[in-house]
Design a protein that fits this description.
The protein has about 900 residues and is an alpha/beta fold. It is built from 44 helices and 14 strands. A 5-stranded parallel sheet has the order 8-9-10-7-11, sandwiched between helices. A hairpin with a 2-residue loop joins strand 2 and strand 3. Helix 6 packs parallel to helix 8 and helix 34 packs parallel to helix 36. It is globular. The two termini are about 20 Å apart.
């Protein structure tokens, strides 16, 4: 085993035997190479670091002699060599054999792990590598500078380790170390260790010494950590509230979610939001996790049910919850400030240094919980809500755990815990039906279990039959607090006939919420929305947007199902007409130069006055429009086809490829083969499949579209389809075939007379030439396309042209021009929220960079590509990350990224797979 040391005297050990590495200057040379292991060090830099301002007359000759002797010495060691690299030398060795690099590696591992005990062990291992003063016995200006930096790094590591010791109860180890001479953080650690060791008097004495020293030497007061610690000592630490309710005794089925909460709440100060529909078991999950991890929070747990979505209670005001928390923290009623702001400030002060878990259950919205967030960063907060609390995620760095229904295995496990596995085994078919009827809803399963427990002799088949007949009737315990129907019936029966009709029609809404204008179109009555909100059967959860409680929605859907079919169809038609009209108006602003792509839509059209309001509306209504289209009755087939054509460009730009595939596939099934609409639907499906990496299926659809375009002599469809076919040919490396298609696409585009279509074809041709390595030719086509984009004022075309020009000018050896084009392209992408453009530009920009800059760009591209499901761009990003990490000597990370790229390229059957295989074989 080889050990190369600089954290002490410079030494080389082979199987524990220390080798003679020569005099001081020769050790200097070795030290320089060890600190830059795996990286070439130029000769001039070596000379400067070894001799500084006083080199010998012929330093290079001396240096060559030292390197030669070191080569001979190290040549006997396995895996260690000194190699010539251009104008310098590089010491090739596993960085983990060099103590300073192993030290840094262990520290990085410690920072990444979420387990404090594991992190502490890593810190101990790292610090054990030190054998005194680094680079001792060596003396030069460079050595002095390096030595100082290393010693500061060690001091920081010691402080970080001692924070972990305090968190894990190892305060005795902190006290075993010599008392620090200076440094407020180290002093605070020692004082906290004395306090935890049961020596408050000694802790207060040391605090006073530190305070006096700071005042005398710096004229400053102790910082927040010391002041908070002082208050804690004086108050005896305060009471330790234990407010958690009892956890469900038979909790089950959420192992993955519990593990995810472990991750989300691993760092101190984390805020996690469990969000999801009512009845999914958010509270059970939160209380179970909090109970299991109570020991992590030595200062206690605070809990409040805010009743944000409780049909039997009003929401608890945040001010009342704060007052309750103050009492739990030991504040006497007479000491509570009279004003809410003062109460909140005191609450934050009392929680600033404590390690508490705060559970805020059933929150209504972000404003409901913001006043209850603790001060400092030592407390962790677990929130449950039917809202996603996006404001909290955005402004407070909260982490989200969206809770879904239980899968079949989890639901079965929950029933088994409640009823026993033997009982379930007696009637497997009935159990299967019960699970299906409950749909993974934890509350529904709990009600089933309660009914069985109340009547143990009753057959499960009978209960399954009840669920088959009426779920809401079967999922009713007969008690007000656990009855689904009783609450809904009381509110519904109090409605006027018009409001009752509106309530039922809202059961047709296929998604969780609806905008005011859409609701008015569906109901034909704006006043009905206000009436239903007042009856707490509808909630305005955002300005202008309304939703039903999920169980109320089920109740409404059951009611509307019994209405007259003609009434339902008329309502659905009104809603679909509304979305078609508004989507058409939005797309006229979103893509103003492509009216030829969209069918004409009649009806009232809104005026999207603000620049981004069209995109905001499309984003907000996308889910509802897609859900309407994919569940529409056959009578609305024409609506579905027109909606798909209308939204085509938006779904492409925003990279909603999976949703687009669903919509376009639905539209294709509803069109008549051989018609123009059928051809465009075939193209839309084929193009979307291309982005999803399913090239064979895409090509089949595109060939049908092209065949029809030629038969109908439809130049528009021909140009679009040939561009898409050419893209697949280029991806698969078939350049001549791609060129032929691009040429035909450009010719067809020019025949249409549509300038934007010609610009798109020119841009695609430029990209093709760039892929072929013809950068000058690429720039020619791209500038032609850019002029069209400028003439039209089209950011949708201009952005991709700029990104492609960035790659072309990089290929021409003009990096400054390339950077300028890429940065402008990314501005276009972000301003227009063009996800497709952004991910492509990031990947292409990264390919022109190296080191940390390239890694940052590739990581951003990878995140966007994953979100969009764009497999090819994911592969590019992983490939680029692998190559960049490999060049930086990060072998482990490089291998992981390259392996991921190979999987993606293999799935895509892309030629780049061979290059990645070769790289992996070399590693």
């Amino acid at each position: 085993m080889v050990e190369l040391r600089v954290l002490g005297p410079v030494e080389v050990l082979a199987d524990g035997t220390r080798l003679d590495i020569g005099h001081a200057r020769q050790r200097d040379v070795l030290a320089v190479l060890l600190l830059d292991v795996g990286r070439a060090v130029p000769v001039d830099r070596l000379v400067d670091r070894v001799w500084g301002e006083r080199p010998p007359r012929r330093p290079r000759n001396s240096l060559y002699a030292y390197v030669s002797r070191l080569r001979t010495l190290l040549g006997a060691l396995d895996g260690v060599t000194i190699e010539r690299d251009r104008d310098g030398y590089v010491l090739m060795a596993d960085p983990q054999t060099v103590d300073v690099h192993r030290f840094e590696s262990l520290l990085q591992q410690a920072k990444k792990t979420t387990d404090d005990h594991t992190a502490l062990a890593l810190y101990d291992e790292a610090l054990a590598l030190w054998r005194g003063t680094p680079l001792s016995e060596l003396d030069s200006p460079w050595v002095a500078e390096v030595r100082g930096a290393l010693e500061r790094r060690r001091e920081t590591a010691v402080l970080d380790r001692d924070d972990l010791r305090l968190r894990t109860g190892a305060h005795a180890a902190v006290l075993a170390e010599p008392a620090p001479d200076a440094g407020e953080r180290a002093a605070a650690q020692r004082i906290e260790a004395l306090f935890l060791d049961g020596r408050p008097a000694d802790a207060l004495r040391e605090y006073e010494e530190v305070r006096s020293r700071l005042a005398d030497e710096l004229g400053a007061d102790p910082g927040p950590r010391l002041r908070g610690l002082h208050e804690r000592i004086l108050s005896g630490g305060g009471p330790e509230p234990r407010q958690l309710p009892a956890a469900a005794p038979s909790f089950s089925g959420r192992a993955a979610e519990l593990a995810e909460l472990d991750r989300l709440l691993a760092p101190d100060g984390a805020v996690a939001v469990i969000s999801g529909a009512g009845g999914l078991g958010k509270t059970w999950l939160a209380v179970r996790w909090a109970t299991d991890h109570a020991s992590r929070f030595p200062d206690g747990q605070l809990y409040v049910d805010l009743h944000g979505f409780d049909p039997a209670h009003e929401p608890v005001p945040a001010e009342r919850a704060v007052r309750g928390f103050l009492g739990a923290l030991g504040v006497a009623p007479a000491s509570v400030p009279p004003e809410p702001d003062g109460q909140a400030a005191l609450y934050r002060s009392l929680t600033a240094r404590r390690r508490l878990l705060i559970v805020l259950d059933n929150a209504q919205d972000t404003r409901h919980v913001t006043p209850l967030l603790p001060g400092g960063s030592s407390c962790s907060v677990l929130i449950t809500s039917r809202h996603e609390l996006g404001g909290l995620l955005t402004t407070h760095g909260a982490r989200a755990l969206p809770l879904r229904t239980l899968d079949e295995g989890q639901a079965r496990e929950l029933l088994a815990h409640r009823l026993g596995a033997a009982r379930l085994a007696e009637e497997p078919e009935a159990v299967q039906e019960i699970l299906a009827r409950c749909g993974g809803m934890a509350l529904a399963l709990a009600i089933v279990a309660a009914r069985v427990a109340a009547h143990p002799d009753r057959r499960l088949a009978a209960l399954a039959a009840e669920l088959r007949e009426s779920r809401l009737d079967a999922l009713d315990t007969g008690e007000l607090t656990a009855s689904l129907r009783a609450v809904f019936d009381a509110s519904y029966r109090a409605l006027s006939p018009a409001a009752a009709s509106a309530f039922r029609l809202l059961g047709l809404v296929p998604t969780e919420d609806i905008g005011r204008a859409a609701a008015t179109a569906l109901l034909g009555d704006a006043r009905a929305v206000r009436v239903l909100c007042a009856a707490n059967l509808l909630e305005e959860h955002q300005p202008g947007r309304f939703r039903m409680h999920d169980l109320v929605k089920l109740y409404a859907a059951e009611l509307v199902a019994s209405d007259d079919p003609a009434t339902r169809l008329a309502a659905s038609t009104r809603l679909f007409d509304h979305y078609l009209s508004w989507a058409s108006a939005a797309m006229d602003r979103f893509s103003p130069h492509e009216p030829y792509l969209r069918p004409r839509v009649d009806g009232p059209r809104p005026d999207f006055a603000q620049v981004q309001s069209d995109r905001a509306w499309l984003d907000a209504e996308r889910a509802t429009m897609l859900a309407l289209a994919t569940s529409a009755p056959e009578a609305l087939a024409d609506h579905v086809v027109r909606l798909a054509a209308t939204l085509w460009r938006y779904l492409y730009v925003a990279a909603h490829h999976n949703e687009a595939l669903t919509l376009h596939t639905t539209a294709l099934a509803l069109t008549t083969p051989g018609t123009k609409e059928w051809g465009f639907a075939q193209h839309a499906v084929g193009m979307t499949l291309t982005f999803l990496g399913r090239y064979d299926a895409a090509a089949a659809h595109l060939e049908q579209a092209l065949s029809l375009a030629l038969r109908l002599r439809n130049d528009l469809l021909e140009s679009m389809t040939r561009n898409s076919i050419a893209t697949i040919e280029d991806i698969r490396g078939r350049r001549p075939e791609a060129r032929e298609q691009y040429d035909e696409a450009l010719a067809a585009a020019r025949r249409t007379g549509y300038a934007l279509l010609e610009g798109i074809a020119l841009c695609n041709m430029g990209e093709h030439h760039r892929w072929c390595g013809n950068h000058q030719e690429a720039a020619k086509y791209l500038h032609q396309s850019g002029r069209i984009a400028e003439d039209l004022g089209s950011a949708g075309l201009g952005g991709p042209v700029l990104a492609a020009l960035g790659s072309a000018y990089a290929g021409l050896g003009r990096p400054e021009d390339a950077d300028a084009y890429f940065r402008r392209a990314l501005e276009y992408a972000r301003e227009g929220r063009n996800t497709n453009l952004e991910v492509t530009a990031l990947n292409d920009f990264a390919a022109t960079k190296s080191g940390l800059e390239a890694i940052s760009l590739y990581e951003k591209a990878l995140a966007l590509a994953r979100r969009a499901g764009h497999l090819r761009e994911q592969a590019f990003a992983q490939h680029g990350l692998g190559v960049t990490h490999r060049a930086a000597g990060n072998g482990t990370e490089a291998k992981a990224h390259l392996e991921a790229a190979l999987v993606a390229y293999t799935e895509l059957r892309a030629p780049e797979a061979e290059e990645v295989r070769a790289l992996l074989a070399e590693s």
